[in-house]
Structures are given as C-alpha cells and as structure tokens.
Amino acid sequence: MMQIEILKSKIHRAIVTQADINYVGSITIDQDLMEAANLIEFEKVHVLNINNGERIETYVIKGKRGSGIICLNGAAARKFVVGDIIIIASYAIMDFEEAKKFTPLLVFPDKNNKLTKGKKHK
C-alpha cells in the first residue's frame, strides 16, 4: 500500500513577533493558533519566510494563549526577524487513496496573529 506525505494544516501569513537566539530551538506559537491549525506541541513543522525566502524545519512549542506570539528560537532567529511574514505548514503521512479525499486545514490570522477565520482548503 502506497503512502504519501501531504499538507495537514497551515497558518498562512502570520507575523513574527519575537526572535530569541539564546533559546534552545523551535518556534513558539500562540496556543489559540496551534489549536485552530490542529498543531500539537513538539510537532514538526516547516516555516517559510515570505520576506526573504528562507525555509526551515523545526518543532512547535506552546505559546501563551491569546498572546499572538510567533517566536523563532535558537539558530532560526538568524533567518527570521520581528515583522517577517511567515507560513507555518505541517504534514501528515497517509494512504494514497485516503490522501485524495483529505482536506488540509488553513488558518488566516490577522495582523496581530489573532484568529480571523479558519477554513478548509478546496
């Protein structure tokens, strides 16, 4: 049985609020955004920087609920700065036929990283 990796969920055009070079690593995300995008703590994500084209893989750390925090930690703080617009994407591995029917969850935060709408991608 063939399995493929497809987009599970995405936070589209969030704004980086902090960058902490001295933290051990990861991306800190407001817990409201995590839940809206169906992300769990320590889940692997890809982070894409719209401002400069950088792309990294890291894992999620829970941020304070309602804070709007998006903080790149550790080495990633060299590639992302406060104010950068980013996309955070998570993926899932599933059966090929199941993947054909799966619809990723997309979250579109406002300019303060607050929830405005969440919708299924068609």
Structure characteristics:
mainly beta; 122 residues; 9 strands; 2 helices; 51% strand; globular; 10% helix; nine-stranded mixed sheet
Would you kindly provide a written description of the structure presented here, covering whatever features stand out?
The chain has a nine-stranded mixed beta sheet. A hairpin with a 5-residue loop joins strand 8 and strand 9. The model has no long low-confidence stretch (mean pLDDT 94). It contains two helices and nine strands. It is mainly β and 122 residues long. The two termini are 25 Å apart.
Give the topology.
Layout: E1 3-15, E2 18-20, E3 26-30, H1 31-36, E4 44-49, E5 55-63, E6 70-73, E7 85-95, H2 96-101, E8 105-109, E9 115-120
Parallel strand pairs: 1-8, 2-6, 3-5
Antiparallel strand pairs: 1-7, 3-6, 4-5, 4-7, 8-9
Radius of gyration: 14 Å
Rounded mean pLDDT is: 94
Strand neighbour order, sheet with most strands: 2-6-3-5-4-7-1-8-9
Shape: globular
Give the H and E element order.
EEEHEEEEHEE
Report how far apart the termini are: 25 Å
Helix content: under 10%
Quick rundown:
The chain has 122 residues and is mainly beta. The protein is built from two helices and nine strands.
